[in-house]
């Protein structure tokens, strides 16, 4: 990505290969992979420029900077007091984005990258985001993920779950790719009272099963504290 600049917004495949000291075929495979995820776009045969995903990521960075600064003290306190892994997330279009994360301090703990590269419906926190995303975005998401690696719930069950999550501002359950990990998540609101982010804890299932109500209270209390710091009066 650093090869592109204001002076050189477009580069040819041979230029990229030479500057990265790679073969042309290897560079082609690399750029094709980046093109598929929107990091670059091909503007003509053998020429590339930065893609739309760069702008999307930049927007997320700007939009979440104040959120991270505000939430960080509460996240640190959560880890200090309870030793569990915590995440701060937003939904960018249909993509779950981890804005901040702190790994737990207990000997048996969940890795901080557990939510990386997961689809929203594969995690309770992702489903919680979808529950307040609006009908149009929900329908578009589920249509796009009809053949996802983790099967979707039947529509009637899905709608009931989303409605309950939206009403409660809370979700809990296993992570699809790690069934022995439970994720609890609560929505965050700012001064506009619009839910726009979430805080979550990822906990080994054995430890969660000992006191599920306590972990729900811990998560919701943290969400209320962060929301108040963001200017919400509905806490």
UniProtKB/TrEMBL annotation:
GO BP term, pick one: negative regulation of DNA-templated transcription
Residue ranges of domain HTH iclR-type in the record: 1-52
Gene3D superfamilies according to UniProt: 3.30.450.40, Winged helix-like DNA-binding domain superfamily/Winged helix DNA-binding domain (1.10.10.10)
Cleavable signal peptide: none
Superkingdom to which the source organism belongs: Bacteria
Residues covered by the IclR-ED domain: 53-232
Annotated keywords: DNA-binding, Transcription, Transcription regulation
GO molecular function: DNA binding; DNA-binding transcription factor activity
UniProt entry tagged with the keyword Transcription regulation: yes
One protein family per Pfam: IclR_C
Presence of keyword DNA-binding: yes
Record InterPro entries: GAF-like_dom_sf, HTH_MetabolicPath_Reg, Tscrpt_reg_IclR_C, Tscrpt_reg_IclR_N, WH-like_DNA-bd_sf, WH_DNA-bd_sf
Official protein name in the record: Transcriptional regulator, IclR family protein
Source species of the chain: Sagittula stellata (strain ATCC 700073 / DSM 11524 / E-37)
């Amino acid at each position: 990505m650093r090869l592109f600049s204001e002076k050189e917004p477009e580069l040819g495949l041979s230029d990229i290969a030479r500057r990265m000291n790679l073969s042309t075929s290897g560079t082609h495979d690399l750029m094709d992979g980046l093109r598929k995820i929107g990091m670059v776009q091909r503007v003509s045969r053998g020429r590339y420029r930065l893609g739309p995903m760069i702008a999307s990521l930049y927007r997320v960075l700007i939009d979440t900077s104040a959120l991270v600064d505000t939430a960080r003290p509460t996240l640190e306190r959560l880890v200090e007091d309870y030793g569990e892994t915590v995440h701060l997330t937003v939904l960018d279009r249909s993509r779950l984005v981890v804005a901040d994360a702190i790994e737990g301090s207990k000997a048996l703990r969940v890795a901080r990258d557990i939510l990386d590269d997961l689809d929203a419906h594969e995690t309770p926190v992702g489903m919680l985001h979808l529950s307040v995303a609006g009908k149009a975005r929900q329908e578009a998401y589920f249509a796009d993920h009809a053949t996802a690696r983790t099967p979707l719930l039947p529509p009637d069950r899905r709608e009931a779950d989303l409605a309950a999550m939206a009403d409660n501002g809370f979700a809990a359950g296993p992570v699809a790719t790690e069934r022995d990990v439970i994720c609890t998540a609560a929505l965050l609101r700012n001064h506009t009272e619009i839910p726009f982010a979430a805080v979550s804890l990822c906990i080994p299932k054995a430890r969660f099963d000992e006191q599920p109500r306590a972990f729900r209270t811990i998560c919701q209390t943290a969400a209320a504290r962060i929301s108040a710091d963001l200017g919400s009066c509905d806490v």
